[in-house]
Amino acid sequence: MSEPTTSTSQREPDRAERERAGSSKGGAAPKQEVELQEVSVQFGGEAVLADVDLTIPAGRTVLLRGPNGAGKSTLLRAIAGLLPFKGEILIFGARPRSLEGRAAFAFVADVPTLFEDLTVREHAAFLSRAYARPEAEERALDWFERFELGGRLDEFPGTHSRGMRHKAALSLALGLDPDLLLLDEPFNTLDADARITLGEGLRDRAGDGRINLLSAHDQALEADLHAYVVEVRGGHVGGLRG
Amino acid sequence: MPTWSRFAAAMWAASVVSAEAVSRPAATASLRGLERRMLRRRVGRAYRWVGRTFGWSTIIYLVFWIALFVVGGVQSAAPIGSPLPVAALPIALDVVALLALVSVSLQRSPPVVLGRSHAMLLGLAPWPSRRVLRPRLLGFFASRAVVGAVVGTAAWLLVTILFAVSAPALVALGAGLWLLRAALALLVYERRRFAVPLALAAALLAALGAASGVLGWEQGTAAPALAASAFTALGLVAAALALVVQGDAYPEGYLFDAMVVAEFRASVLMAVMTQSAGALRRRGVTTRTRRRGRGRRSGSARIRLPAPSPEYGPLGAVAWRSALALLRAPLLMKVALLAALGYVYATLSAGVVGGLPLAVLGLAAGFLASWLLGPSVEPAPVPLDPFSRGGGRVLPGLVAAAVVFVLLTALRSATGGPAGSGEAGLLAFALVALATVILEKASSWLHVSHREWTAWGLSGLLSGTLMWILSALGGPGTITLGALGLAFASLLVLP
Asked: What pLDDT sits at residue A40?
């Protein structure tokens, strides 16, 4: 089962999705894909990623795979607009740092970033309002329950273990239900039940036409998530295969 | 096997291991080589880091000016009009020496530590402890002597000003006192039972010696107490060294203690280094620790505020979070905030509406703004437009400031204050509002925490300067309107 890297979405985007992608102003239907063109990232003059070309159509779960230090996290951070890069990254036609771009994705880093001055429950309230998605609060609370964090919602994340912080960050991202979900090694700190829960969530999202882009080392995930694989090696990125 | 024979066997085994370790010249040489290499690398790394972070020319420039100021300060140090009685000097010195030495009795952690890698690789290897600890002990005593000499110099200056007595001997005494303190710290860590009375005895001797030495110096007599004090210090240093360095084994629990202390010091050093290097741009160690610390404060999670209706959008969300942060701030900070707002109001109602004092007041307002401004959303890629972000961060703090100024104005009017109290309140609010908005923009653009002095200093100077310029154009009314207009326009227009 191979997929051309330039393939387009197999389903017609609905109006809500078009609005989320922020391109209703332009009139033309937005591209339902994430597109990277000649993307390069340098640290201190040294190329960490070189001329990456990649197109990810809607409804895919894509695993970034490669050895430590290959550039997987750097690629994810560049797509999230957290790193300066050369080239072009378009998230459903919008640049990552634009408001439209940022509204279209959620990113969970390998060391999850949470607001240390808000309790877990307050995170859900804050983010749902900041993203102007009122329904996201209920969804996040539901994900907290699924990740067995229900009893710890009124605590600050600073009092939680790394695994719990990861679950909280994943719940918030899944609660937002963005068109693109960027996850940096999300399975590493999770317990067995949480891994299954997350796997189910990612499969459902892909089934609904969303894109999941994650880095992982576990070979079994490819089959579990029905995922496509992109090999990252020495700053070079291969095409989609699955 | 009976207990005594097991003990004897263990002692024999220990002596064999120890003797082998000591008698291995190649191993000792390799340890020495390792120390030299590590020292060289550490010095090289520090040299490069300082050069990259601050620049050596900057350091030399700063050192030159600091030295010039210090020398100038020392030379210009003149006794106060009516100096304190010299009789009070021995008492003051006694108290200082006693405090310095007795504080050591609280020592619960090893004063000289091995880093994590050294504790794991060298501490657990069959090396005699004295070989591993020697370079660190030397560094420890040398640094304490330098610190003591600096303290002694400061004391010399202070004594000259307050008592009209010049006592350069205080430099040597300071170094001796700090060496003594270091030695006692080692003794206390090692042998707690007799170290405390020993510390007290040494403190008394040292204090007595210091006081008599200073007086004797002034009276032109060679004070025998000075010599006694110096000998006591040297004796105790030698005793501490003998106790710590003599054995082949580390004190009980030393390696574990050392690793914990080393980790703690490393984290503090990392925080200092990242802060100095301006690396707090995105996820600063200190900021994160501070926030986490605030979050962990017992009871602060119980302070809640209902979330706003979703129709208020991102602006409402950010404002809600800022209000929560303000409510959850420590009580002491809230009191300090009230006091600072009161100070700004009082200064402006005293008639300071122009000139340099207003610029200085702007700096104070910048500091005030650093506490009034809500937390940043960076580095999370939340889709917030600049107005929602800025307005939400600024609004709760400014509402609180406005309430305080209204209350102060009412209080002043009620207590029969002069006319124009309301004008001063408005002016104070305008200044704080301008400083807070500029701080929000500055911290967002520079990607630094608003609690960083670079950010609030810049906003304070800018707002002070703007108020100064406005004061040249008109009276308090013009300044207030102009400042509020600038603040609002900045919120609306600037990214």
From this structure: 93
